[in-house]
Each structure stands twice: as C-alpha cells, then as structure tokens.
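lol ok so funny story. i was supposed to be doing the assay writeup but got distracted and ended up predicting the structure for this chain instead. priorities right. anyway since i did it might as well share w the group, maybe its usefull for someone
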Amino acid sequence: MPGEHVAQDQHGTKSVVSRVAPQDIGRASGTFNTLRQLGGAFGVALTGAVFATAGGYATARAFSEGYVPAMSVSAALAFAATTAGIVLPRHRRLAPTTITGHAAPVQSKAG
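and the output, tada:
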C-alpha cells in the first residue's frame, strides 16, 4: 500500500525526535533517516544476493528456487528487527528544555 510507508516513516521519525533535547532534533532526525536508508539498501542487497545464489531468472523453477530462500531471509531480518525493538530498553522522555538548554519552568496545577 502506498500510504503505509508514509505512515510508518512519520511514526518512526516522531518517535526518535521526541526523545532528544530540542537542540539535537536535527541531528537525531538526520541520523535516523541515514540509518533507515542504509538498512533498506542492505536488506535489498542481501535479498538479491540470496536470490541470485539460490536461483535466477532462467526458468520458472530457478526463479522459485531463488525466491523462497530470499523471502525467508527477509522474514528472518524482519523477525530480528521486531525482536530487537521489543527486547532493547526503552528510553525515558527528557524533561522539556528551553532553546538555551535550561530546564523549562514547571507550572503548578494548583489554582
């Protein structure tokens, strides 16, 4: 689905930049996007290498023999990423700061 990638991208970026200080948002966003692009390129390269090693385009049988291992590798990578997302420790949200880097004043709720 075309819109699915956009929704996932916005959620991931928001998740990353919401956990850093305001003065580091640009750096965090750039790092996240770079690693996302490298991860995608690595996944495509690895899947293509497995496909080419195990099969090919010569016949329908060769294609099927390459397709199954390539998709198995893709599934294993997706499972590893999901497991890492569940197992890795969560980060606490930082206290709000001002542009100067000092902690923002906390407003009391008492009226």
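The two ends are 50 Å apart (CA to CA). The helical segments are 2-17, 25-54, 60-87.
back to the writeup now i swear
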